[in-house]
Amino acid sequence: MTLYSQAPLAGRRIVITRAPAQAQELTARLTSLGAQVLAWPLLEFAPPEDTAALDNALRSLEQFDWIFFTSRNAVGFLAGRAEQLDVALQPILTRGRPRLAAVGPATAEAIQEQGWPVAYTAHGSGASALVSELAPQLPGCRILLPRSHRATGEIIEALRAAGACPVAVVAYRTVEAEPGAPPPAGVLDGQCDMVTFFSPSAFTAFLERIGPERLHTLGHRVHLAAIGPTTARAIRQAGFPVAVEAENPSVRDLCEQIVHFFSKRTDPGEQQ
To answer: Which residue of 40, 51, 88, 272 has the smallest Cβ count within 10 Å?
Structure first.
């Protein structure tokens, strides 16, 4: 028996629906665990068609008490637009107003890569956890929310309930990638073990591509994995089971949960 065959995910075929630039860490981890990775990027990200609201926010940042970042994309696109406008964010953000909050460690890392200070990183999963944990500090605060044009209103409602004044601006667009591109071989006939999703939008794009009837037909042969509770909830609301949900929205946790899931399974044709 080779070392590769002893790897916990040896023989497993796992689809990554993330954009290539964002899939590198997950691809490397899954490959090191023995999985065969199939790339099927369903979404890509682009600047807003109308930047007026984002531009106004960037030029008046000191009017905000907090900026809540709920994704790495929000960080990157806000930084990119500030550079285009020649708005120097570093001097403003290092003065402590507005303070920066991150939905999780990956987003906090993206903020730090820009050289900006992170005032708070959520311990729980999802944007609702970020609001809940900071709730005592939020009454009366103006909070900037740079996000996708397809983002839901969940965090806005939570912030208003906490007594804050959220200001949501579109920092980037989430669009379908290569609409006519076929899926990797084996996806439509159930010859893969798992498909991973990193946003509700990615699952929606997946469902539109293959159709709900076919996904129901695949049944227990193809399992669905979600990076966190928001994505998992979207999958369940569409009527499909979630086999793996990361306890924390990180690539490391997702891989650990995938390994744990398959460690409990012996599929037909596999040896005990």
So the answer is: 272
